Amino acid sequence: MAGLSVSMEINGRAVGPMEVPEYTSMLDFLQEYLNLTGTKLGCGIGVCRACEVIVEGDDGELRTLRTCINNVGRFNGKKITTVEGHAQRNADGDIESLSPVQEAFLRHFSFQCGWCTPGFVNAATVLIEQLKKSPVAKDEVEATIDGALGKHICRCTGYVRYFHAVRDVIESTPGLLKEGD
Amino acid sequence: MGPVLRAALLAGLFACSVALAQPLADKGRYLAAAADCVACHTAENGRPFAGGRPFQTPFGTLYSTNITPDKKTGIGNFSLGDFRATMHRGKGPHGNLYPAMPYTSYYLVRDDDIEALYRYFMQLPPVENRPPANRLVFPANLRFGLGFWNWLYFDPDRPLPDGKGRSAQWRRGNYLVNALGHCGECHTPRNFAQAMQFDRRFAGNVLEGWDAVDIRPQSLRRQGWDREQLRQLLTSGSSERGTLFGEMFRVMQHSLRHLSDEDIDAVITFLLDESEALPGKRGDVRQATDRYGGGRADYVAYCAGCHGRAGAGITLAFAPGMDDNAAIRALNPHNAIAVILRGLPAQRLDRTRARAGMPSFHRELDDARIAELVNFMRGAWGSGGAGVTAEDVARIRHRLDKEGYLGSNHGN
């Protein structure tokens, strides 16, 4: 099988250039080549969104991409954040503090088995970053969360708790809601 | 005649007419499915046949009417004659209908079938629902102008395509496709006044941003369709040659899959000219890879996760293969390009047959990359020349964007 030379930045660290079979899915690349096993395989057909990671576009804008249905070539040369890349770490690489989104999910007991959580963490983080640039009116918060996370499937806790957690982050982080609301 | 005898006779007559009416209404139900009335005469999440679905035309927005037998807002006051005039001539009791109502095809529906349809609709539960008023620009908002349109473009004496020397099955298919199914309303190109161009019957037409494909026999053959694949497509929406999407998925959902096996056979016999050999020439992967290396790389990176290695698909329930796919083999590359730009929504036929939809790529892939990707697929797995230019993609992108089809899908 033909090989593909890939290099990218994942969680702030340069990866590659390295040669991988061209049909390698991004999910397999993370798990099998980089030992980043936090990204999970859920449905494998691009429906459940457990496997989403964050990709920075050429315009600097963050968005999520599914890694089960996209092969590694789509990520070549890009900046990527996986669920391993959100927490603050010290010089030894040990976790010092979780991100506000991760903290809120824990505080609200948003998830049980945790399989879908990496996708939720990534998509919610992208949402928060977008709101920092373009805040939302208070009465549009629910619809905004639904638009960003509505396609993510969770089979344990029934959606209400992650919803509360994300709303909590939006309301408690200054600048995410439109002035006067 | 004694009163008892008279009552008995009357009751007998009544029972007779009810017994006759029910099979006629049942026949009407089947014909209404064949004519796909429900698709247009039902609003999103609305009651069936109660009308109100909007139709965007170059002249403004039309709303379908309520065809339940409600006396105030539906067709409850229609006589059989009114119903026939509406179906055959586009003449409702209140004036001419806009030719969005396909009387331009239904004029070919036989009188006995018209009566069965009438009996079926009149025994439906009446639903009170007044659809919104049409919003058309001047002068299209003046109904009397439609008489002129009809005079110019509607020839109620134009017969069905000639069936001389054809089998009974072909002639049944001819009737189903041209009269009840009104397939030409989408698949036949229209002139500036939105009238069908009969000299180019079934040659294909872009509607709602999709190409209602060329379904002439030689084109279907060129795309490699055989009877069995066409049957799968028309009854389930999926086949090895590709899937139905856009309005055609709904046509299958509401109409085609309810047809009897014999009628589907007849439709296929009419559509396919099996005397023509299946095309032997196949694409050339090596040549396409040499010419469109960037397109191949993008196929591997963006498409292969669902459409499989070497275009072979993974499983049809997931996504169709691209090798020998009808949209890749088609002469007109419109759908191959449009599908990449806008993606496809999820589809659900029943509990076990659902499709996840396809992401759109209009934000990430520019015109030149899409042209090269389509050229690679057409060269490798199609039968036509590649030859798609970045300008072709730009034109389609511009039109889809203008018509609002590149909006919501995030393509991730």
Structural summary, described in words:
The complex is a heterodimer of chains A (181) and B (412). With 181 residues, chain A is α+β, with helices and mostly antiparallel strands. Chain A has five helices and seven strands. The N and C termini of chain A lie far apart (57 Å). The model of chain A has no long low-confidence stretch (mean pLDDT 94). Chain B has 412 residues and is mainly alpha-helical. Chain B has three domains: 16-158; 159-280; 281-412, Cytochrome Bc1 Complex, Chain D, domain 2 (Orthogonal Bundle), CATH 1.10.760.10. Chain B has helices at residues 3-34, 37-40, 80-89, 103-106, 111-122, 145-153, 168-180, 184-187, 217-222, 227-236, 247-254, 261-271, 285-291, 293-307, 326-329, 334-342, 367-381, 390-402; strands spanning 54-57, 60-63, 91-92, 95-96, 135-136, 205-207, 210-212, 238-239, 242-243, 347-350, 353-355. In chain B, the strands form five sheets. A three-stranded antiparallel β-sheet of chain B has the order 1-2-5, with no helix packed on it. A two-stranded antiparallel ribbon of chain B has the order 3-4. The longest helix of chain B has 32 residues, at 3-34. The mean pLDDT of chain B is 90.
